[in-house]
Design brief:
339 residues; alpha/beta; Rossmann fold; Dihydrodipicolinate Reductase, domain 2; 7-stranded mixed beta sheet; 6-stranded parallel beta sheet; 26% strand; binds nicotinamide-adenine-dinucleotide
């Protein structure tokens, strides 16, 4: 494809705004021409600051616009499945943020719709696959660098927001495992060669946000996942770290071990003074994965233009939801659960 890919974005919130800026100013081979949000102020900002000309409050009108080729969906998770299916029905390429859906049946419906529109790209935003260090780790494993990988220990830990702003989204996010650990679940499958998960056990606690008890959620959650063939994964998710955002993954193999993202250091600056020796911390996932968000969107555009094939599939997203849901069930039942 030589012509520019015309893109519309739905959802201009915390992450949508970031994707929109990348599409407007940094991603090659595309033009951000359209935006959709029920919030008028977000559409005004897209027009004023990003030069977007086609503005929609109504998703159906947005997705059926014949003058866009692809849509990027950064909308609340509960809307993902229906919106992806509508986009494919309108013959658009579609990128959707993680998780694909909160239920396995919805993920499978999306997979069926994608098979029926196999000439369209359908991609889920597992951004860590586009992070240089995670990609390096995966390549090293493929080359046999750590022998046979059999254990992944991975965590997604957010800086405590004393205002508890995330509590507004918590009831519809699917809980801490579907919202945060879903990334670690996808990473574990990717690093271990996509084995089938068989059984999980979860336990969690509320360290700060007591309001989560009413919706059966926790602000610190642990989970163990067993896979066919003997591989295991251990996940930790937190919303209450005092120092910064700390995404970290360890992959242990028979001939070595890999560690991605040790600690939360923002850069290589070390400050030594009367208080001791310290480094400043990464504030949030946007800062940690700034480059990966850009590479991810470039990969989507390149795939739509026929210039790249994506290794990441919708089925990967279905399996991440399947495991995430089993972990969430286990948190509630306090028992091991089959996947
Ligand atoms: N990849 C990651 O690391 C990562 C990080 C954060 C969020 N996410 C995912 O991104 C999605 C959005 O999260 P967020 O934190 O930006 O949420 P948000 O609430 O800040 O933004 C949601 C946006 O969707 C818009 N919206 C709501 N209903 C809509 C509709 N019917 N049609 C079009 N737009 C609609 C809202 O106006 C808002 O602009 C979630 O699925 C979340 O899981 C992924």
């Amino acid at each position: 494809m030589t012509s520019t890919l015309r893109i519309g974005i739905a959802g201009l919130g915390r992450l949508g705004r970031r994707h929109a800026e990348n599409l407007a100013f940094r991603v090659r081979g595309c033009q951000l021409v359209s935006a959709c949000s029920p919030v008028a102020a977000e559409l005004d900002a897209a027009q004023r600051e990003l030069g977007v000309t086609r503005l929609h409050a109504d998703f159906d009108a947005f997705v059926r616009d014949p003058d866009i080729d692809a849509v990027v969906l950064v909308t609340p998770t509960a809307l993902h499945a229906e919106q992806v299916i509508a986009a494919l029905a309108a013959a658009k390429h579609v990128f959707v943020e993680k998780p694909l859906a909160l239920g396995v049946a919805d993920c499978e419906r999306v997979e069926r719709a994608a098979r029926a529109h196999a000439d369209r790209v359908a991609m889920v935003g597992f951004v860590r696959r586009f992070d240089a260090s995670y990609a390096h780790a995966r390549a090293h494993i493929e080359q046999g660098g750590i022998g046979r990988p059999f254990l992944v220990r991975s965590q997604t830990c957010d800086l405590l927001d004393p205002s508890g702003a995330f509590l507004k989204f918590a009831p519809t996010s699917g809980g801490i495992y579907m919202d945060c650990s879903v990334h670690d679940i996808d990473l574990a499958r990717w690093m271990l060669g996509s084995p089938r998960a068989t059984r999980v056990f979860a336990s969690g606690t509320i360290a700060v946000h007591d309001e989560l008890a009413a919706i059966g959620d926790v602000d610190n959650g642990l989970a163990i996942v067993e896979f066919d063939g003997g591989a295991r994964a251990v996940f930790y998710a937190s919303r209450t770290f005092a120092h910064g955002h700390e995404t970290q993954t360890e992959v242990i193999g028979t001939a070595g071990k890999l560690l991605v993202g040790a600690g939360a250091a923002r850069d290589r600056l070390q400050i030594a003074d009367a208080h001791g020796v310290r480094q400043l911390a990464v504030a949030d996932f946007v800062e940690r994965f700034a480059d990966a968000f850009l590479h991810e969107m470039q990969a989507f555009v390149d795939a739509c233009r026929g210039e790249q094939r994506l290794a990441l599939t919708l089925n990967d997203a279905t399996e991440a939801t399947r495991i995430g849901q089993a972990i969430t069930r286990s948190l509630k039942s306090a028992m091991p659960e089959s996947v």
